[in-house]
Amino acid sequence: MKDIKMVDLHSQYLNIKSDIDNAMQNVIETSSFINGKDVTFFADELANFLEVKHVIPCANGTDALQIALMALDLPLGSEIIVPTFNYVATAEVIALLGFKPIFIDANLDNFNLLIGAIEPLITENTKAIMPVHLFGQCADMLSILKIALMYNLYVIEDAAQAIGANYYFPDDTYKKAGTIGHIGTTSFFPSKNLGCMGDGGAIFTNDDDFAAKIKTLANHGQKSKYYYDLVGVNSRLDTLQAAILRVKLKQLNNYTASRQKAANKYDSLLAKCSEVVTPKRVINSDHVFHQYTIKVPAEKRDDLKNYLQSKNIPSMIYYPKALHEHKAYEYLLNKSEDFPNSVKLSQEVLSLPMHTELEFEQISYICENIISFFQQ
Quick one: pLDDT at residue 116? Predict the structure, then answer.
């Protein structure tokens, strides 16, 4: 059995080595390292895959979130609802732009934001909701859209962990994660389901005006060279990364299927262990399994992690603290008792190895050791 890795990017590369090498060599030979043709081609191909009108590539996922918010032209001090059980990037850009993160609790079953907690948080200063499609499964976007319409709020999706997931509406139509709200964003960090070999990100929208503004903001605020209409930033996807992403985008549906098969194998084997709660699937979204995250009793979680490490099985805790508990956000004066689900999840979650090259033999070994731990 091969060594188990949390994410096996090298094996993924070896399986598409000739295509990746050729794509990179073509960029090197043209020497169009910035704004080369592959960037435009990739944007068009990703837009076609996502069935969205506009894709604007940028330097990374955090920039994507920041630029999306900048495009809204919100007044300073605007309140934006964002999950507290989450990676820091969404809250970070809100605070950096002079807005106020309004943290919301998580759903214990699927880890996404708690729909019933949205309306009590809305004030006259609330301007947007930023759902994060955590671990590979969409938040309840239909409910979010209804609330947003009722209160005239923008919806900015963070789809960095769920690219390729479909969200299904009651009329049997669907949209891809990141294309449902006003603006969507993603990251192409190497470990993402669609990852490059460095940093990268993108912004999605069906709104022509937003698209034009986002393109301008990402390019120093200029619509044409040396003419600056807005105060912008410099955020672009380099051509080498775009070329790599063009190759990987062709594999994304296969990558998703591989992750889903691995998740089903985990499910079937871990069903034998009553102390493990496997990831719940919701009926209105695909799960593309950026992470396979189990829940175990809080008092045993860290011991389990250490036990697995002793067996050469990596695991990760996403996330050991909810955002409101961190020093950077103490100024918001939040109380942990207002976020009981998020605090509970941070003590119980453990993410197991999940990637496109994960083998059933490896999954069996992982599960055998988890079951063995709880039988001690």
Answer: 98
Yes or no: say if 244 and 23 are a contact pair by the CB < 8 Å rule.
yes
Tell me the CA end-to-end span of the chain in Å, nearest whole number. Answer: 25
- Tokens 């940028």 -> residue: 58
Question: What's the CA gap between 314 and 305, in Å, rounded?
Answer: 8
pLDDT, mean of residues 256-268: 98
How far apart are alpha carbons 26 and 36 in whole angstroms? Answer: 11
Which has the closest alpha carbon to 141: 129, 126, 123? 129
Q: Which alpha helices (H) appear in the chain, and where do they start and end? A: 9-15, 17-30, 37-50, 61-70, 89-96, 118-121, 141-151, 208-218, 239-249, 252-270, 298-310, 340-348, 360-375
List pLDDT tens digits, range 162-202.
Answer: 999 999 999 999 999 999 999 999 999 999 999 999 999 99
Please write the tens of the pLDDT for every residue from 312-327: 999 999 999 999 999 9
Rounded to whole angstroms, the Cα distance separating 291 from 317 reads: 11
Mean pLDDT (the chain) is 97
- Per residue in 55-106, pLDDT (tens digit) is 999 999 999 999 999 999 999 999 999 999 999 999 999 999 999 999 999 9
pLDDT at site 376: 86
Contact indicator for 100, 77 with CB cutoff of 8 Å? yes
Q: Angle at Cα 124 formed by Cα 119 and Cα 126, nearest 5°?
A: 60
Number of alpha carbons in the 13 Å side-chain half-sphere of residue 60: 10
Q: In angstroms, rounded to a whole number, what is the distance separating the alpha carbons of residues 325 and 85?
A: 10
- Tell me whether residue 254 is exposed, middle or buried, using C-beta atoms within 10 angstroms of its C-beta: 0 to 12, 13 to 18, 19 or more: exposed
Nearest to 126 by CA among 105, 104, 144, 100: 100
Is-contact 79 100, C-beta < 8 A? yes
Write the CB contacts of 52 (distance below 8 Å, at least 6 apart in sequence): 176, 178, 179, 184, 204, 205, 206
* Contact between residue 84 and residue 342 where contact means Cβ atoms under 8 Å apart: yes
| Chain centre to alpha carbon of residue 82 | 14
